[in-house]
Design brief:
Distance between the termini: 111 Å
Family: Belongs to the BZW family.
Pfam families: HEAT_5MP1_2, W2
Oligomer: single chain
Number of helices: 18
Keywords: Activator, Coiled coil, Transcription, Transcription regulation, Translation regulation
Strand order of the largest sheet: 1-2-3
Shape: elongated
Protein name: Basic leucine zipper and W2 domains 1
Length: 422
């Protein structure tokens, strides 16, 4: 029984372990055969796929995988940097010389898909080739980059390659010169055209790259605002929204962690920490309303869940007032807009209803936060008249009745004084 031959590779040569015979790594003949076949099949991609399928039985695809893919993409072997090697045979029938349209790129994607399905061992080599090609982007023309981007997006959409290949786009030089971002536009357009934004999101999450999209831009442009404008202007609002949402999720986690650490250290909240201040400045004012609701919820829940509350109703109010007085600067930092004050009031209403021993504490908590400038009289009056929710409505409105009357009277007196002054 004849055993299988085992080969190991050393620079520029292969050694057959069964015979110790050295086989020089020489892709010239392999390249000539592939180029000749492609020249004969021409632009008929069905014929190209059949030629590649048949040739795999006679040629050493395993050893010369990189050469094979170089030829199919660029027409010849690529030198470092992405230029074609001058001294070797080339073909004009390749991806880079094809028409620059999505339909043609879809047809080329089918050629690669059929080849790799037939010769499974080429999968890893193909991914390595794509990674290399992305690093060589500066060496290609704009048209060549566009075709490669469309092809890559189609291959990603169909699961032919892993999204981990996108790591190559974070190369410092490619990012700095704007090549990565421009390439990403074409890539994600073809990806979403093939599938949808959910396909993009799922693939990026799978390889831990869902929070790295901003890195397509240099540090001085690495913001949600710049990313959103760039890709929205390019017709990729779905991607902009996804990136903004991912950034918000990451920021919420950072906020929760910072709040927890500050509380565990027992830090006083007379001044909001620099980290939280930075968070507010960077993210809070640009968030969507739904995300602001989430933020208010995180802060309120973090503050209220840190304490083991007394089960006696007559004692819990005093405990809550003392606790919230300490954290009022934090709450104030997150209620700089009228809408956020209403959201906090609603969150408080829901909390006091869901935690039965707080039912009689609501009015006293509102008064405390009013005195601490966390809640304005406008916000309280709006909550009372129209913005409250159903939970415990009758109980809490009754609690607030006298205080609301006092606010209205104070407001009327203030207006009268202003009129007299005029």
């Amino acid at each position: 029984m004849t055993g299988k031959k085992r080969m190991i590779c050393v620079p520029n040569e292969y050694i057959d372990l069964s015979t110790d015979e050295k086989k020089v790594f020489d892709p010239t003949q392999f390249q000539e055969t592939i180029v000749q076949g492609l020249n004969q099949t021409g632009s008929d991609l069905d014929a190209v796929a059949k030629f590649l399928d048949a040739s795999g039985a006679k040629l050493d695809y395993r050893r010369y995988a990189e050469t094979l893919f170089d030829i199919l993409v660029a027409g010849g072997m690529l030198a470092p940097g992405g230029t074609l090697s001058d001294d070797l045979t080339r073909t004009e029938f390749c991806l880079f010389t094809a028409q620059e349209d999505l339909e043609t790129m879809q047809a080329y994607a089918q050629v690669f898909n059929k080849l790799i399905r037939r010769y499974k061992y080429l999968e890893k080599g193909f991914e390595e080739e794509i990674k290399k090609l992305l690093l060589f982007l500066k060496g290609f023309t704009e048209s060549e980059r566009n075709k490669l981007a469309m092809l890559t997006g189609i291959l990603l959409a169909n699961g032919n390659i892993s999204a981990s290949i996108l790591n190559s786009l974070y190369n410092e030089n490619l990012v700095k010169e704007g090549v990565s971002a421009a390439f990403a536009v074409k890539l994600f357009k073809s990806w979403i055209h093939e599938k949808d934004i959910n396909s993009v999101a799922g693939s990026l999450r799978k390889v831990g790259m869902d929070n790295r999209l901003l890195e397509l831009f240099p540090a001085n442009k690495r913001s949600c605002e710049h990313f959103s404008k760039y890709f929205t202007d390019a017709g990729l609002k779905e991607l902009s929204d996804f990136a903004r949402n991912q950034q918000a999720i990451g920021s919420r986690k950072e906020l929760q962690k910072e709040l927890q650490e500050q509380m565990e250290r027992g830090d006083a909240f007379k001044d909001v920490s620099p980290k939280i201040t930075s968070y507010l400045r960077t993210y809070f004012h640009s968030l969507l309303s739904l995300q602001i609701i989430t933020m208010i919820g995180i802060v309120w829940t973090s503050v209220m869940s840190y304490v083991e509350w007394n089960k006696k109703e007559e004692l819990v109010t005093e405990q809550a007032i003392k606790h919230l007085k300490q954290y009022s600067p934090l709450l104030k930092a997150f209620t700089s807009q009228g809408a956020s004050e209403i959201l906090l009031l609603v969150k408080m209403q829901e909390y006091c209803y869901d935690n039965i021993h707080f039912m009689n504490s609501f009015q006293k908590i509102v008064v405390l936060l009013y005195k601490a400038d966390v809640l304005s009289e406008e916000a309280i009056l709006k909550w009372y008249t129209e913005a409250h929710v159903a939970k415990g409505r009758s109980v809490f409105l009754e609690q607030m009745k006298k205080f609301v009357e006092w606010l209205k009277n104070a407001e009327e007196e203030s207006e009268s004084e202003e009129e007299e002054a005029d």
